[in-house]
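JOB MANIFEST
job_type = single_chain_structure
chain_count = 1
residues = 138
[input]
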Amino acid sequence: MRFPFSTIVLAAATCVAAFAESPAGKTEYGRYLAEEVAKCAVCHTPRDEKGALDRSKYMKGKVMEAAPIEPIKDWHKTSPDITPSGRLWTRWGGKPALVKYLMTGLTPKGTLAGPPMPTYKLNKADAEAIVGFLETLK
C-alpha cells in the first residue's frame, strides 16, 4: 500500500486556503504585506533610542530621518499616522478611500501622495488586507 502524499498535500492546501479566507487569516496576510512587503513601518513608525521601531507609536507617523541632497518637488519631511485614529482616515473618507488609494496610487483628490511615498497599484484583495490590518491598530 502506498502512502497517500497527494491527499496530505491537498488537505494542507485546503487548510491554508481556509485560513487565508478567515478574518484572522486576512488580517495576518495584511500584516505580512504591510510589514514585510511594503515596509510601511519603516517610514510610518518612529524609532527608539536603540534604533528599533517604537512599538508604542507603531504606524503613528514620524519625522523622516533622511532627506534628498538635492531638493525634490513635494518631498514630505513627515509621514502621517496611518492608524484608524489618525487624521488621514477621516480626512480621506475611511477604509474605502484607503483601499482605493492602494489600488490606484491616487489620493481622493486624484493626486499622487508625493515622495518619498511609493505609488502602489495593488489588487483589491491585497489592498483590503493591508487596510484591514491597519484597522486593527490603535
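[summary]
The chain is about 45% helix and 5% strand.
Strands lie at 62-63, 78-79.
exit_status = 0
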